[in-house]
Fold this protein.
Amino acid sequence: MKDLYRTVRLIRRFEERAIEFVRSGEIVGGIHPYVGQEAIAAGVCAALTPDDVITSTHRGHGHVLARGADPSRLLAELMGRETGLNKGRGGSMHAADFSLGILGANAIVGAAASIATGAAWAYRQQGRDTVAITFFGDGAMNEGMLLEAFNLAALWRVPVVFVCENNGYATTMPVESAVAGSITGRAEAFGIPAYLVDGQDPETVLQATMAAVARARAGDGPTFLECMTYRFDAHHTFEHRARLDYRSADQLAFGRSRDPVVIQGSRLPDDQRARLDAEVEAVLDAAAEFALRSAHPDPADALECLYAVMP
């Protein structure tokens, strides 16, 4: 219970601090904030073993942190510093850490699902019981790559769990204007069991994911979870200046009325919650100091990691 709270609180405060660094110019180009959706990353990743893997999205900081990435190195990555998870070359949308089973965030909508499906299939061929989780938004439901991943995962009974974070909007387009039928129905059409999940409650997400992971590990194939959530902040921080008008004040207030941090925090004694809050702030203070003091990459090394070196 307390671990789930610490994770949602860490993600929330990391994102809020990252937004501050966007405004100060330390993070160039902006980010896609995960504020409001923390319960999904926390609940899903809490159901995994160290041998499992995840793939993420352009809105991936929460997934990476929930999987155990070092906040200092993730923040350094966002700032484009040499000490970042990927030496400052991946930035906000491409964080990866293979040592933790983070096969990478992906800026191409829906593309990471095919990577997760292929990885899970490959691990099974090696005799491992690894399960792959792939996160994507409601906007990915019309992408061919995702539907192809559904097809192969179902045909080959691949141990993968598809997690749709339905926050109601693909950038600014409401889901009801973009997706015909139902989202769960898309997965069910391929014979994949699909479930609607309260994506604002970390413990509910955890329970649903544990069942899906157990099914995959037992060799019964993929599961689809549609986690209903709400993005509290902008699609991208450029909105803070552009002030796009696609959600009314009433819609925002209603969406924010069920805050994952508040929901999970209410399950803890006040003193324990306060201690965890202070712990998170100390971690992020250290992360900020680490990232700001880290060097920028040497331009002479700009072509490193772009090409494979053949023996």
